[in-house]
Amino acid sequence: MNNRILVINPGSTSTKVAVFEGDIEIVEKTLRHSSDELSAYQEEEAQLNFRKEKVLGFLKEEGIALESLDIAMARGGLSKPIPSGVYLVDDNLLHDLKETPKKHASNFAAKIAFDIASPLKIKACIADPVVVDELSDIARMSGHPKFPKSSVFHALNQKAIGREHASREGANYEDLNLIIAHLGGGISVAAHAKGQVIDVNQALDGSGPFSPERSGSLPVGDIIRAAFSGAYTQQQMMEMLVGKGGMFAYLGTIDAKKVEELAIEKPSKEREVMEAMIYQISKEIASMVIPLENKVDGILLTGGLAYGKWLTDKIKNKVDYIASVHVYPGEDEMKALAMNGLRVLNGATTPKLYGETIF
């Protein structure tokens, strides 16, 4: 066995495909899909088949024989909440991904992987989707029973970075208490208690720091009054939360790299907004000390914004009294999926059954 791993990660206008041998990527490509192409496949089944054929075409062009594959790893979609881990793609998972009202291209990934893997008699799996939910009971209580806190965050990258950091420290991820902040288009800050994310902000359209395109926590009363004012549609209100919130709402751009450059250069609106975002991120990090009961082995900064040294240095200066701060810039979802596939192949983990673990 060459430990050859196929990785599939669909986005709204692209499908990322890669093949790894062990921990080495041997081929990778982002297959771009134009709006004209996608408009011809309005039905979900049609678009799924379109994307699958693109993946198969890429593998053929690269000379990757399907029979050489040992496992297919897919990005997890918006299924029901589940604990962290690697999950076998089966009928239960495929049913929920097809029937979920939460539509996203990531929902196609498991079916594409399953259709490729099944004739080969190999496993198709997902790992740590955004719906990973390990919240403690007390963290789930929001303040009103009709609105319990939900767990939606960058689980795949956070878990991968947690394991990578533990390995570098000569420790096991399951033995450490970590605060991990994923800093990207969305921002999630989580308390990892010995391998379990027991508290995290709802990073999609809920709470936490504002980010380049999301508003994070907002004054709820003002939001309700605006929603019923008649001045905005539901779509416009949702865009205030996701897509046109945060940095974009203040500055008209989501280019955090450019904003950081301007912030460094001189006092400006850009600096004011960046300082406010750094303040909110740092405050969220500090709040995760409580779930971990003041026992923190490290603070990890990851995601695209973590490439900005000015930003990460300022966060360090605010929170390094809690624990040592380590920066792991970027996010590599393809490698994270591949490494989970490798853990299955080498026996380090056994895939769970989705139907036995959903809440």
UniProtKB/TrEMBL annotation:
Q: Which InterPro entries match?
A: Aliphatic_acid_kin_short-chain, Aliphatic_acid_kinase_CS, ATPase_NBD, Butyrate_kin
EC number(s) given by UniProt: 2.7.2.7
Molecular-function GO terms, alphabetical? acetate kinase activity; ATP binding; butyrate kinase activity
Q: What is an annotated GO biological process for this record, any one?
A: acetate metabolic process
Please provide, in alphabetical order, the Gene Ontology terms of the cellular component aspect for this entry: cytoplasm
Catalytic function, reaction form: butanoate + ATP = butanoyl phosphate + ADP
Query: Is ATP-binding among the key words of this record?
Result: yes
Alphabetized, the UniProt keywords read: ATP-binding, Cytoplasm, Kinase, Nucleotide-binding, Transferase
Which cellular compartments is it found in? Cytoplasm
| Location, primary (coarse class) | cytoplasm
**Which HAMAP family does the record cross-reference, listed alphabetically?**
Butyrate_kinase
Query: Which family does the UniProt entry place this protein in?
Result: Belongs to the acetokinase family.
Name listed for the protein in its UniProt record: Probable butyrate kinase
Q: Which organism is it from?
A: Flammeovirga aprica JL-4
Report which gene this protein is encoded by: buk
